[in-house]
Every structure is written in structure tokens, then in C-alpha cells.
Amino acid sequence: MQITHEFLGMITFILNDRLIQTEEPEGTALLDFIRYKAHLMGTKAGCREGDCGACTVLEGHLEKGKMRYKSIVSCLTPLGNVQGKHIVTIEGLQKEKMSPVQQAMIDNAATQCGFCTPGFVMSLTAHSLAPEKTSPEKVIKAISGNICRCTGYHSIKHAALDIARVLAKKNMDDPLEWLIKEAFLPAYFRDIAGRLEKIKTKTISVENGKPVAGGTDLYVQQADEMAVAKLRFLNKDKSLRKIEISNGICKIGGAVTAAEIMRHEKLQQHFPKIKTYFRLISSEPIRNMGTVAGNIVNASPIADLTIFFLALNSRVQILTKEGTKKEVGLRRFYTGYKQFVLKPGETITAIMFRLPEKAFFNFEKVSKRQHLDIASVNSAMLLELKNDVIETVHLSAGGVFAWPFYAEKTVDFLTGKKLSTETVFEAAGVLLSEIAPISDIRGSKEYKSLLLRQLFFAHFAAMFPHQFTPDILFSKLMAS
Ligand SMILES: Cc1cc2nc3c(=O)[nH]c(=O)nc-3n(C[C@H](O)[C@H](O)[C@H](O)COP(=O)(O)OP(=O)(O)OC[C@H]3O[C@@H](n4cnc5c(N)ncnc54)[C@H](O)[C@@H]3O)c2cc1C
Ligand code: FES
Ligand code: FES
Predict the structure, then answer these.
(1) Domain enclosing residue 18, as ranges
(2) Tag placement on the chain: N or C end, fewer CB within 10 Å?
């Protein structure tokens, strides 16, 4: 597979109802284009790090002839990533009268200084466009990436619940028409699919440019450099955007996002709690943008997706500069803090793993805040039993080593052992002997060791709730 690149020098997309053709640098943050080139000041610049959601906009693209919309943060989005897409800002909603989302915010006094309000409205509008039935929980989760410093959230929550009640009546056969009829969206949305089809969506990548996928790490760490850099846009390569399952092997393209993984129906069958696990990762708009390869190359010792896929003993497929393919086990990918075997110019094209059929799997994450926070310690475990004997086991842990850690010694210890409380407690000792946490802002090294031991026990409590009850684990802990 050869990735092709072409530089056109002109980025074309639809902003609200306007066709935009611009020669602005492809690394310009979409937020800056919206505010300072298109002069649409409703989208606010808050943290510029993806945390506050004040800059949230809708991104729409064509999928099998139909428009699909999602919320993204415009501060971390390179202009090049919106080539051929529909971007909607607060100005792109109703002009003559308020949309039901805006009205609900007013009716519930859910806006005070108003700085955060456009972001909340766009996140709730993105939720109204989701191709699934709403629920009070889902509508609250849709605003997980928005922060308000004035209201104390209760009024916003009431507004969101009002919207959920209206959306419960959404006609799922023709949601777009229903949303236009109910004034959630203006009528021009009807023509967007046809207008996008006419845009020649060629890549605007530069062959030797810096690889960028979702931009959620790069634009936090190097925003100024990104604005002027020549970039290689990986999201434009369809071969990197697929999830394929064949003969029990799942292959996830490098540019597949966290949101696409958690919503994949087949993956939900193999990991029934995948949505619960992934909701602990960042926020709705960041999950809509951040990719699996970006998470691996970020090489953060607490990278959640990497920890998840390490416990599946995944392999990483790499495309070399010369166009040949090679593979490496994810557990052999890292060689030091932020060091890895991937060479400059190489691309992660996919990760691959055997889908668990009869295996037990669990993912745990502890952070200071439950949502939109990075882990203090995280861990995942896969375990396969035969006649109560551990046949296969993989265990990963984040925040306890210089890179995402695969607990090789603990895995060796557990393999072939009978599953019992004694085995689990002895294995916990092995685990603590092979980690090397450091004290930092997320906790002391002693706290992180203790936390990992608890998460290790939590895996067994989650996988075998009858055998490893809190009482049994606690009394064994007291006796040890
Ligand atoms: C507000 C916020 C909250 C976050 N919360 C979490 C969290 O809870 N848990 C967590 O794990 N992470 C979190 N992150 C980090 C980030 O979202 C993830 O690491 C994400 O997966 C990065 O993917 P990306 O596509 O955006 O990477 P990018 O920023 O596009 O790229 C990151 C790096 O990967 C390289 N790269 C990307 N794709 C490839 C490829 N296919 N081949 C080779 N190199 C490649 C890029 O060159 C760059 O060096 C958060 C980030 C933000 C801004
Ligand atoms: S400005 Fe805060 S998320 Fe973009
Ligand atoms: S109303 Fe002021 S930040 Fe939300």
C-alpha cells in the first residue's frame, strides 16, 4: 500500500452556508481561520488546548452519500483536515429565531457571561444530529468536553434534559428533515451533501511533511510550529481509516479515532463494556478527533488507547519510507521515555490483534477527575482460562514506568497457574517488583504502586465477581 500525496495549495470547504476556497497555510488552526479570516466571532478562543470546549464547532462529512456530523474543537484542528467538509459555527444555526437548543439555554438561565455558551450549543446540536436515539445520560455525556465557570452547571444540565425530551420525538427514518422542521437546523443543511459532492476532495498533503492525524497532541504541544509547518494529513488516506475483521483478527487503521472504535458494532460485541471504558478517555470532541496511531506515537506513559491495545497483545503495522511494510509487537514498540522503534518518515498504518472469543477483558483508569482527565494510573488485562487454569494472560499498566508498560514478569508468573486468591496475591507482588513509577503531579511513586495493586485486584473483581468479591479480597489483604 503506497500513500499518495498531492499539494494543491487551495483548501476548499463549506463554512456554514458559504463555500470557502483559501490559500491560508494548511496548518492554520481552524479556530483562527473562523475568527480572524472569516470574521465569525461566535466561536470563542479559551484554553486553546482542547480542554474548555469554547471553540466547539460541527464537522460534517459525506459517508455513503449521507452527511455525518460530529463535534470537534477548532483550536486543535488544522485547516487541512477540513478539506471537503462542512464546518458549522454558532452563526450557521438559526438567524431569525433561536434553535430549540438555544431556547432551552435561555429558558433555563443556562448562560451568564456567555463565553462558554456557543460551545455548549454546538455540542448539544451535534448530539441532536447523532444517528441514534437520545437519552438523558447521552445528552449529558455530549457536553463532557465543555466547561462553564459561571453557572455551576445545574441550569445547563436542565437545558440539556429539556433538549433530550424534545429529541426523544426525533423521526429516525428522516432525522435531517425532522431537525429542519423543528428548527434545530436551518434549511440550507438539505443541500450540503450535494454541494460537498462537487468539491474535488484531493489531499493537500506534502509528501515529506510532518504527519498529523487528529492534531489533539500536536496542537497542544507545538501550536506555533504547526501553523507554518508543511504537513502530511493522514486522515485523508482512506486505507488508514478502516476497521477490518477477518478470521478472528481485527485490524484497525492508524487514523481511526477513539470514537469510531467505541461505536463499532462488532467491537462492542467482543468488548461489551467498551463504551464505558472509552468514556473515561478525554471528552466527546477529543475522542472524535484523536486517533489510535497518534496515541501510540505520543508515547505518553499513561496513553489510554495504548494501554487498552497492549493488553490485547496487539501488533503494529508500519509503512517504511521506501514503501515496504513491517510489523512489530506493541510491547516491543517503546525503547525509552518517548523513544520508539518508528523511524522518521515511517507511518503506522494499522494495529492488529486477535479478537477475544472466550477471554475475559477489563480496563481500569483512575484520574483526579472522572472525565476529561489523564490517568494517574491505568491498566488493562486479558485472561483466558481452561479448567480454572490461566491459559493466556496479557497485562498492561500506565503511569508506573517510563512508557506504556507490558507486565512481562507478572504475565509469565500467572501463565499456567490455577486461578485462586493466593495466585492473584502472589502475582500482585511480582507486578509491584517489576514497575518503576516516579513521583509527579499525579501522585507519589508509593501512591501509584498502591493504586496499580488495587487496579490489578479490580481486574479480577470485574472479571470474576463471584470468586473475587470485595470481602474476600479485603480479608486476604488484611491477613497478608
Ligand atoms: C483535552 C485533551 C484530553 C485528552 N485526554 C486524553 C486521555 O484521557 N487519554 C489519552 O490517552 N490521551 C488523551 N489526550 C491525548 C490525545 O487526544 C491522544 O493521544 C490522541 O490519541 C492523539 O491522536 P491524534 O490523532 O490527535 O494525534 P496527533 O496530534 O495528530 O499526532 C500525535 C503524534 O503522532 C504522530 N502520528 C499520528 N498518526 C501517525 C501515524 N499513523 N503514523 C506515524 N505517526 C503518526 C504525529 O506526527 C505526532 O507526532 C487528550 C488530549 C487533549 C487535547
Ligand atoms: S479553546 Fe478551549 S477547547 Fe478550544
Ligand atoms: S456562562 Fe460564563 S463561562 Fe459559562
Answers:
(1) 11-197
(2) C
Q: Closest Cα to residue 254, out of 321, 340, 324, 317?
A: 317
The model scores a pTM over 0.70:
yes
Q: How far is the CA of 308 from the centre of ligand 1 (A)?
A: 15
The CATH number that applies at residue 43 is 3.10.20.30
Q: Are residues 269 and 393 in the same domain?
A: yes
Q: Do 265 and 181 belong to one domain?
A: no
**Other CB atoms closer than 10 Å to residue 205's CB: what's the count?**
26
Q: What is the DSSP string of 263-331?
A: T-HHHHHHSTTHHHHHTTSS-HHHHHH-BHHHHHHH--TT-HHHHHHHTTT-EEEEE-TTS-EEEEEGG
* Mean pLDDT value across residues 5-27: 84
Which residues, 6+ apart, have CB-to-CB distance to 176 below 8 Å? 67, 185, 189, 190
Burial environment of residue 263 by CB neighbours within 10 A (0 to 12, 13 to 18, 19 or more): middle
Which of 242, 295, 305 to probe ligand 1 with, by most ligand atoms within 8 A of CB? 295
Mean pLDDT over each residue of the chain, to the nearest integer? 94
Is residue 375 within 8 A of residue 401, CB to CB? The reply is no
Q: Which of 76-90, 361-375, 413-427, 456-470 has the weakest average pLDDT? A: 361-375
For ligand 3, whether the C-beta of 148 sits within 6 Å is: yes
Q: From 90, 148, 153, give the residue whose CB has the most ligand 3 atoms within 8 Å, as the site to mutate.
A: 148
Distance of alpha carbon 459 from alpha carbon 463, whole angstroms:
6
Predicted pLDDT at 202? 60
For ligand 1, is residue 84 a contact (CB within 6 Å)? no
Closest Cα to atom 4 of ligand 3: 148
